[in-house]
Specification:
316 residues; mainly alpha; Arc Repressor Mutant, subunit A; 3-stranded antiparallel β-sheet; 5 strands; 60% helix; elongated
Length: 316
């Protein structure tokens, strides 16, 4: 792929807020193993912060505050109980059920994790000015919209990692539903748009362009090939290399997907002319310019994947 084709594809991808959010939340995942202590959990940390504002709280209410599924909340809560960071007490709102409250160790865990979480924030926003961080966070809160509980802890509302993951989840969920009748997913759409801009492209270069691993791009291309939307052909210059190109069938699917993308973008952040959309398209590429951590963890499509981060600390 020559420089002109790469720039054309990058330009196309940078007009897709969903693609930028996908890559940005992947940066969150990648930063976890590099910056935070091993054996800790992002949603456990969020739960402890929520309990700091008001306790005891039911598991159902905590799941609403940190925006995870009931299944994930059950696993997080059990881990916190096992680690001695929370305990179950009678729910004052319903004596037939139990709620969670922090132990002394749980209160200490929040203080201990504070410097690590601060370093995570510094890493993620290293390429942004403080004013740009404020602007980006406001745009992310707009994307999350009504899915953001009114009583979300202030510490989470000021955390770029939390807002990025939540905004990606909101954007991904809605766009995935819009694309379902076409038989593709959001990452398929971004991949097809990239190939449409570059023309036939070697698979490893496509991975670099999308900022995903070789294994991930193989999975994406396999799915598109099975759907008859792309084809792999040997590179005439090197038969060991396979180039990926769109099929004739992809033209109609891509056109219909682009229409859905326009509707999704309008709903996401106000559409053309919206300051929130402008902030996403201007600042997410800047955020992504920061060098990634030396090590990374698998990309998580949404927060119910139980991503590991700061919060949990084992008792000695």
């Amino acid at each position: 792929m020559d420089q002109a084709a790469r720039q054309a594809a990058t330009g196309v991808l940078h007009t897709l807020p969903g693609h930028l959010l996908w890559r940005a939340q992947a940066r969150v995942s990648a930063a976890l193993g590099r910056i935070l202590p091993p054996g800790t959990d992002i949603w456990a940390h969020a739960v402890l912060l929520a309990l700091a504002d008001h306790e005891p709280q039911s598991q159902r209410r905590l799941a609403e505050l940190v925006a995870v599924s009931g299944t994930t909340m059950t696993a997080v809560a059990q881990g916190l109980v096992d680690d001695g960071l929370v305990e179950r007490v009678r729910n004052p709102q319903d004596r037939r059920s139990y709620a969670l409250t922090r132990t002394r160790d749980g209160r200490s865990a929040v203080r201990r994790s504070g410097p690590h979480v601060a370093r995570l924030e510094e890493h993620l926003t290293a390429s942004l000015t403080p004013a740009q961080v404020t602007w980006l966070q406001a745009a992310l809160r707009q994307v999350i919209g009504e899915q953001l509980d009114a009583e979300t802890p202030a510490a989470l509302l000021a955390s770029t990692w939390f807002l990025l993951v939540r905004a990606h989840h909101a954007a991904h969920r809605d766009f995935q539903a819009a694309l379902r009748p076409l038989g593709i997913e959001p990452r398929d759409f971004g991949t097809m748009r990239a190939i449409g801009a570059t023309g036939p492209v070697p698979q490893h270069e496509l991975a670099q362009l999308l900022d995903v691993s070789g294994a991930t791009v193989v999975q994406i291309v396999d799915g598109l090939e099975a759907a008859g939307l792309v084809v792999r052909r040997p590179d005439p210059a090197d038969r060991r290399v396979h180039r990926v190109e769109l099929t004739a069938s992809a033209t109609d699917v891509l056109a219909r997907a682009e229409e859905q993308a326009r509707h999704s973008t309008d709903a996401l952040a106000g559409g053309p002319g919206s300051p929130h959309l402008a902030a996403l398209l201007e600042l997410l590429p800047v955020l992504l310019q920061a060098p990634p951590p030396a090590s990374s963890t698998p990309i998580s499509p949404h927060p119910d994947q139980h991503v590991r981060l700061a919060g949990r600390s084992r008792r000695s």
